[in-house]
Write a structure and sequence with these properties.
- By secondary structure, the chain is of the alpha/beta class.
- It is built from eleven helices and twelve strands.
- Helix 1 packs across helix 10, helix 1 runs parallel beside helix 11 and helix 5 crosses helix 6.
- The radius of gyration is 20 Å and the shape is globular.
- It binds nicotinamide-adenine-dinucleotide.
- The site of nicotinamide-adenine-dinucleotide has 23 residues, from helix 1.
């Protein structure tokens, strides 16, 4: 066993605490199942509850410690009743994205048997794709938090969509690497560039850089789709797609659409990866309406932990973390197939604890 990777753990607020604990329990058990070096955790207090207690949104030195770990795992942050004086919510995690340049937003979208399926076509059972969303620039360069919008009195507002060569090259390289990793797991590995290159110079630039990187990866099948046609195709034939790479705002919208095809927020896993570190969290929030009731579906957090272990395998060169990730993915897929996973979120009888136990039991088939 040896010294394993360290995780900066921010449980946060509401169900974030429960699902983060569930995900850590599963990650620790998965590492043990494949004899991977044990994970170490550095818990950092942050969030709305912490703010109400202390007047700070993250403990002193917390951001620095987060950057020193091999990866960051976050439950959820924010409670609508606790706000700053200007009315905005407590959100230290958004600073982490900027601070660490977490450009590659990875959002897997996969249909599981016995989980809700919104399309009647039986091929919807084959949906297994990843939305790769650039997460630091694009139209979000102008997001209100950055104060970059050009406000011309009460008459007009202009926002800036920014595409840089440096970030776009890194994003597309990441996409081709992801395609290789998926091919190694027996998946189709086709990378589709989603843009609006027919209309916008910035998007033609985005596609040109995609083509430059694609030329270095002749083994990977590539495709192109304009974002409007992609929205149509996500409803008409989502099973045809594997990895979709796109600008920030397009990814924001299409990842929700894609997530809606295969269930609810409790399945939406997310990794945000930069050059130095990665932050992994379920895409959902703190769900105050169900907190403290053992009703939350922990699978989005658990699948985010699998993304984190894959990332750690790559970062530390320890292949057993990759095997641990595969164990988690298989335990979830097989758990649904055998109807051993029945989250309350989908009308089932299993709360957070019961789902977590069933995944842990499924790690050693
Ligand atoms: N990244 C984050 O930490 C993050 C993301 C979104 C929202 N938030 C914060 O969370 C708080 C609540 O926001 P919201 O209500 O808009 O979004 P939410 O995602 O917390 O909840 C939306 C709905 O989905 C349900 N839901 C969410 N996760 C679920 C799960 N795992 N299992 C079962 N049901 C689940 C909730 O019960 C609720 O009905 C706010 O303070 C918001 O700012 C944080």
């Amino acid at each position: 066993m040896g010294t394993g990777a360290t995780i900066a753990l921010i449980k946060g607020d509401g169900i974030g605490v429960d699902v983060a604990e569930a995900a850590c329990e599963v990650a620790v058990a998965a590492c043990a199942a494949v004899a991977a070096p044990a994970l170490g955790f550095d818990e950092i207090r942050a969030g709305a509850g912490y703010f109400a207690e202390t007047g700070q949104d993250i403990e002193p030195g917390g951001e620095e410690r987060a950057g020193e770990a091999d990866a960051i795992f976050l439950g959820a942050i924010g409670l609508p009743a606790i706000r700053h004086a200007d009315g905005t919510e407590i959100s230290p995690h958004l600073r982490l994205r900027d601070r660490f340049g977490l450009y590659a937003g990875v959002r897997p979208v996969r249909a599981y048997p016995n989980a809700p399926q919104r399309l009647a076509d039986p091929r919807a059972a084959e949906i297994d794709m990843v939305i790769l969303r650039e997460s630091t620039e694009g139209l979000f360069y102008s997001a209100a938090a950055h104060g970059r919008a050009q406000v011309i009195g009460d008459a007009e507002v202009r926002e800036t969509l920014r595409i840089t060569r440096a970030t776009t090259e890194k994003l597309h390289r990441f996409g081709f690497k992801l395609a290789e990793a998926r091919r190694a797991r027996g998946k189709r590995a086709r990378l589709t560039c989603v843009d609006k290159a027919n209309v916008f110079t910035s998007m033609a630039f985005f596609r040109n850089i995609f083509n430059e990187i694609a030329a270095q990866h002749p083994e990977t099948e590539v495709g192109y789709n304009y974002v409007d046609a992609q929205a149509l195709d996500l409803v008409r034939q989502p099973w045809e797609f594997d990895i979709l790479v796109m600008e920030n705002m397009f990814g924001d919208i299409l990842s929700d659409l894609a997530g809606g095809l295969v269930g609810g927020m409790g399945m939406a896993a997310c990794g945000e990866i930069g050059d130095r570190t990665g932050l992994f969290q379920p895409a959902h929030g703190s769900a105050p309406d169900i907190m403290g009731q053992d009703k939350a579906n922990p699978l989005a957090a658990i699948l985010s932990a699998a993304l984190m272990l894959d990332y750690l395998a790559d970062k530390t060169g320890e292949p057993r973390y990759g095997q641990a990730a595969a164990r988690i993915d298989d335990a979830v897929a097989q758990g649904f197939a055998a109807n051993r996973l029945r989250p309350m979120e989908f009308g089932g009888d299993m709360g957070t604890r019961a789902v977590t136990r069933a995944v842990v039991e499924g790690l050693n088939p």
